[in-house]
Amino acid sequence: MPTSMLAFLIGVVAGLRAMTPPAAVSWAARLGWLHLENTPLAFLGFAVTPYLLSVLAIGELINDKLPKTPSRKAPVPFAARVVVGALCGAALGAPGQALIGGLVAGAVGGVAGTVGGYEFRSRVVKATGGKDLPIALLEDAIAICAAFWIVSR
Length: 153
Prior knowledge:
Layout lengths: L2 H14 L3 H11 L18 H15 L11 H19 L5 H29 L4 H20 L2
Protein backbone atom coordinates (compact mmCIF):
# COMPACT_ATOMS: atom_id res chain seq x y z
CA MET A 1 0.00 0.00 0.00
CA PRO A 2 1.42 3.45 -0.86
CA THR A 3 2.77 5.53 2.01
CA SER A 4 0.39 8.38 1.15
CA MET A 5 -2.59 6.06 1.64
CA LEU A 6 -1.24 4.81 4.97
CA ALA A 7 -0.65 8.42 6.05
CA PHE A 8 -4.22 9.32 5.08
CA LEU A 9 -5.57 6.30 6.98
CA ILE A 10 -3.61 7.09 10.15
CA GLY A 11 -5.12 10.58 9.89
CA VAL A 12 -8.59 9.05 9.67
CA VAL A 13 -7.85 7.11 12.86
CA ALA A 14 -6.73 10.37 14.50
CA GLY A 15 -10.18 11.72 13.66
CA LEU A 16 -11.70 8.85 15.63
CA ARG A 17 -9.32 8.89 18.63
CA ALA A 18 -6.67 11.60 18.66
CA MET A 19 -4.14 9.88 20.92
CA THR A 20 -4.33 6.34 19.56
CA PRO A 21 -2.31 7.00 16.38
CA PRO A 22 0.61 8.73 18.13
CA ALA A 23 0.80 5.85 20.60
CA ALA A 24 0.77 3.30 17.76
CA VAL A 25 3.34 5.24 15.71
CA SER A 26 5.56 5.60 18.77
CA TRP A 27 5.39 1.88 19.52
CA ALA A 28 6.18 1.14 15.86
CA ALA A 29 9.23 3.41 16.04
CA ARG A 30 10.36 1.92 19.34
CA LEU A 31 9.95 -1.66 18.11
CA GLY A 32 11.86 -0.94 14.92
CA TRP A 33 8.89 -1.26 12.56
CA LEU A 34 9.14 2.42 11.63
CA HIS A 35 12.59 3.94 11.21
CA LEU A 36 12.51 7.52 12.40
CA GLU A 37 16.16 7.75 13.36
CA ASN A 38 17.82 10.89 11.94
CA THR A 39 14.45 12.53 11.23
CA PRO A 40 12.78 15.41 13.08
CA LEU A 41 10.35 12.83 14.51
CA ALA A 42 12.98 10.58 16.08
CA PHE A 43 11.61 11.50 19.53
CA LEU A 44 8.65 9.22 18.82
CA GLY A 45 11.00 6.25 19.17
CA PHE A 46 12.62 7.33 22.44
CA ALA A 47 12.32 4.83 25.27
CA VAL A 48 9.73 6.72 27.34
CA THR A 49 7.60 8.10 24.49
CA PRO A 50 5.41 5.06 23.72
CA TYR A 51 4.58 4.61 27.39
CA LEU A 52 3.67 8.27 27.84
CA LEU A 53 1.56 8.33 24.69
CA SER A 54 -0.14 5.06 25.67
CA VAL A 55 -1.18 6.53 29.03
CA LEU A 56 -2.58 9.58 27.22
CA ALA A 57 -4.41 7.32 24.74
CA ILE A 58 -5.97 5.29 27.56
CA GLY A 59 -7.00 8.52 29.26
CA GLU A 60 -8.66 9.67 26.06
CA LEU A 61 -10.52 6.36 25.71
CA ILE A 62 -11.93 6.87 29.20
CA ASN A 63 -12.61 10.58 28.76
CA ASP A 64 -14.55 9.97 25.56
CA LYS A 65 -17.25 8.15 27.52
CA LEU A 66 -17.86 11.01 29.97
CA PRO A 67 -20.96 13.17 29.49
CA LYS A 68 -19.10 16.51 29.63
CA THR A 69 -16.61 15.62 26.89
CA PRO A 70 -16.94 18.17 24.06
CA SER A 71 -17.80 17.15 20.53
CA ARG A 72 -14.88 16.15 18.31
CA LYS A 73 -16.24 18.76 15.88
CA ALA A 74 -15.71 21.64 18.35
CA PRO A 75 -12.83 23.88 17.15
CA VAL A 76 -10.09 22.77 19.58
CA PRO A 77 -10.71 19.00 19.41
CA PHE A 78 -11.13 19.23 15.64
CA ALA A 79 -7.86 21.13 15.20
CA ALA A 80 -6.05 18.73 17.54
CA ARG A 81 -7.17 15.74 15.46
CA VAL A 82 -5.97 17.37 12.24
CA VAL A 83 -2.60 18.25 13.80
CA VAL A 84 -2.17 14.75 15.23
CA GLY A 85 -3.15 13.23 11.88
CA ALA A 86 -0.55 15.42 10.20
CA LEU A 87 2.16 14.47 12.72
CA CYS A 88 1.46 10.75 12.40
CA GLY A 89 1.19 10.95 8.62
CA ALA A 90 4.54 12.75 8.54
CA ALA A 91 6.04 10.00 10.69
CA LEU A 92 4.85 7.35 8.25
CA GLY A 93 6.26 9.32 5.33
CA ALA A 94 9.59 10.30 6.93
CA PRO A 95 11.51 7.04 6.35
CA GLY A 96 10.84 7.32 2.60
CA GLN A 97 11.68 11.03 2.35
CA ALA A 98 7.96 11.81 2.03
CA LEU A 99 7.57 13.71 5.32
CA ILE A 100 5.66 16.63 3.76
CA GLY A 101 3.46 14.37 1.63
CA GLY A 102 2.68 12.25 4.67
CA LEU A 103 1.95 15.37 6.70
CA VAL A 104 -0.57 16.63 4.14
CA ALA A 105 -2.20 13.22 3.68
CA GLY A 106 -2.44 12.75 7.45
CA ALA A 107 -4.03 16.18 7.92
CA VAL A 108 -6.60 15.48 5.21
CA GLY A 109 -7.28 12.11 6.82
CA GLY A 110 -7.72 13.87 10.16
CA VAL A 111 -10.47 16.04 8.70
CA ALA A 112 -12.14 13.05 7.03
CA GLY A 113 -11.93 10.92 10.18
CA THR A 114 -13.27 13.65 12.44
CA VAL A 115 -16.29 14.43 10.28
CA GLY A 116 -16.85 10.84 9.13
CA GLY A 117 -16.36 9.38 12.61
CA TYR A 118 -18.87 11.82 14.07
CA GLU A 119 -21.44 10.97 11.41
CA PHE A 120 -20.82 7.21 11.71
CA ARG A 121 -21.20 7.22 15.47
CA SER A 122 -24.26 9.51 15.45
CA ARG A 123 -26.08 7.47 12.83
CA VAL A 124 -25.29 4.09 14.36
CA VAL A 125 -26.35 5.29 17.82
CA LYS A 126 -29.61 6.56 16.36
CA ALA A 127 -30.19 3.35 14.39
CA THR A 128 -29.57 1.15 17.43
CA GLY A 129 -31.91 2.95 19.77
CA GLY A 130 -29.79 5.66 21.32
CA LYS A 131 -27.23 3.64 23.31
CA ASP A 132 -23.93 5.48 22.86
CA LEU A 133 -21.57 3.40 25.03
CA PRO A 134 -21.54 0.22 22.90
CA ILE A 135 -20.93 2.27 19.75
CA ALA A 136 -18.18 4.28 21.48
CA LEU A 137 -16.50 1.02 22.49
CA LEU A 138 -16.82 -0.26 18.92
CA GLU A 139 -15.20 2.96 17.70
CA ASP A 140 -12.38 2.45 20.23
CA ALA A 141 -11.77 -1.07 18.92
CA ILE A 142 -11.78 0.12 15.30
CA ALA A 143 -9.32 2.92 16.08
CA ILE A 144 -6.91 0.68 18.03
CA CYS A 145 -6.95 -2.17 15.52
CA ALA A 146 -6.69 0.13 12.51
CA ALA A 147 -3.80 2.13 14.01
CA PHE A 148 -1.73 -0.96 14.72
CA TRP A 149 -2.59 -2.49 11.35
CA ILE A 150 -1.46 0.70 9.60
CA VAL A 151 1.86 1.04 11.45
CA SER A 152 2.67 -2.64 10.91
CA ARG A 153 2.66 -2.18 7.13
